[in-house]
Fold these 2 entries.
Entry 1:
Amino acid sequence: DAKTTQPNSMESNEEEPVHLPCNHSTISGTDYIHWYRQLPSQGPEYVIHGLTSNVNNRMASLAIAEDRKSSTLILHRATLRDAAVYYCILRDHTGNQFYFGTGTSLTVIP
Amino acid sequence: GAVVSQHPSWVICKSGTSVKIECRSLDFQATTMFWYRQFPKQSLMLMATSNEGSKATYEQGVEKDKFLINHASLTLSTLTVTSAHPEDSSFYICSARDQSGGSSPLHFGNGTRLTVT
């Protein structure tokens, strides 16, 4: 699996937008970009995924660079419940295996 | 949405005993399930991939005789930690997907915290 690089930690003020970056310079043409988040003592939760085009859902938006070597998860208005570790993961077209990187620990400041 | 149930949520056992953790997909059939282990303040580490009706594929460095995985049905996979030792204490998490391909999201259980005394 191609590797991803994320900042170890980020902070955001409550109710402000948050942009979580992810670099994946070795991404292949068939790799999907997935984002998950993990709250303390829980299993990861699916957030969003995309291939080439930007994606929106009720939880977040995913902005994918034109060359696909980086992407950004956007939380439009951070809440205290968004405090979690966010993982950016690449999955190949088979979907087999699923490796987690180190993730970004997001702190939301009231 | 798709739900994965993991049981028990926590377990304490004595050194040398075996512990079984169950992972069930409640509203979908999971042809493939994944087992992870997570130590405090670390990321998830993939242990093995299990496919229904066949032997699990273990990641390098994971002892298959110690971590027995059974995926006998499309809705149930089990992980048995045999002869557990204190260093096996960890947070074990399972996940499942309801269809193949890179676009299908994984659904995760809420994890099992194992403490070996």
Note: Chain B touches chain A at residues 4, 6, 32, 34, 36, 43-46, 49, 91, 93, 95, 97, 100-111, 113 (CB under 8 Å).
Entry 2:
Amino acid sequence: DAGVIQSPRHEVTEMGQEVTLRCKPISGHDYLFWYRQTMMRGLELLIYFNNNVPIDDSGMPEDRFSAKMPNASFSTLKIQPSEPRDSAVYFCASSLRTGPYNEQFFGPGTRLTVL
Amino acid sequence: AQKVTQAQTEISVVEKEDVTLDCVYETRDTTYYLFWYKQPPSGELVFLIRRNSFDEQNEISGRYSWNFQKSTSSFNFTITASQVVDSAVYFCALSEAGTYNTDKLIFGTGTRLQVFP
């Protein structure tokens, strides 16, 4: 398996622009998670999906952030409009629910810089 | 409340030294899982180990060992004879799996380990 795939790996944009981050989970995994990592706040869970349905979006910072999962093999995280404080590394992770635990497999991350 | 504390922000050692990374957790649940992840300089997060709350046996995998003690709510990670390639940020994480199961991983703030030659 190719693992979790994220694109782009790096994104540099100007304040006010729309940014779309993409994720392909591991085939067969029915949970998908979006995280944000910054020096100040560490790893934060933004939102997660189960079987393509958003379960908990309480970590989404504000209305400028939205996430979708139109099918089992694709998810997007959109920021519109972007702001410099959104600069961070965004990780996507997926897991297979086989029991009361969830080992998550992480993608390589997208490093976002908003100027 | 659920919380993971990694009090050591950064540790520096010289190659071949042993080093222990501390992790203390808080949970409301009686069933839970603890994890360690490694984040090397390349940035990706790599799963190292998972432990459930009913299994307090220590585990050893090569130079890595983990000490789980429910009495002190700790899940410490020891690297024996450290190597430069061990340089990374290490994260401890908790997942509540019983009454309070939310499918979420709660991460600590990480410990940056630097191993010098």
Note: Chain A has a mean pLDDT of 92.
